[in-house]
Design brief:
159 residues, alpha+beta, four-stranded antiparallel beta sheet, elongated
């Protein structure tokens, strides 16, 4: 059973259409989904207000910016300093994403680097952050499944 704030089949169809054509106008989305323009506009506003639709920032491959090396840094943090560590990580340009975890690792940090020497510098910078107790770094060798939500939307749209 989904929560009342969950995306329904109509929202999922609309989000699929938006995913397939991110620059589509409200009118084009209405035509593609068979919904009225006003319904599409209201649904999009509702999805945005509920935080379902995040930033419209296009994903840019860090390799195209000269950062071909991706790594994940697992960080153990002094618990009372979690907010401070998060704020410090936000200030490191090479930090692409930070996820709080349960278990023995507190944070999973995705970083981009120019090369191994640059990764060594970044890892050292993260380790030197006040409140960071320990780090472990793993290189990304290849992406097998890129970040995606379409399969979830397709499942919901057909229910």
């Amino acid at each position: 059973m989904r929560s009342p704030e969950a995306v329904d089949a109509t929202d999922a169809r609309l989000l699929l259409a938006l995913t397939e054509s991110p620059r589509a106008t409200v009118l084009a989305l209405a035509e593609r989904t068979g919904l009225s323009r006003n319904t599409v506009q209201a649904r999009l506003a509702g999805l945005e207000a509920r935080g379902v639709l995040a930033s419209f920032e296009r994903r840019i491959d860090p390799a195209a910016l000269g950062y071909p090396l991706t790594a994940f840094v697992m960080i153990q943090v002094t618990q009372r300093m979690l907010d401070e560590v998060g704020a410090a990580l936000r200030d490191v340009p090479e930090v692409l994403e930070v996820l709080g975890l349960s278990g023995s690792t507190d944070l999973l940090v995705r970083v981009a680097a120019h090369d191994a020497d640059d990764l060594y510098r970044i890892a050292g910078q993260l380790l030197a952050t006040d409140g960071v107790e320990r780090t472990t770094t793993s290189l990304v060798m290849r992406t097998l499944v890129d970040q995606r939500t379409m399969p979830l939307l397709e499942r919901i749209a057909t229910t």
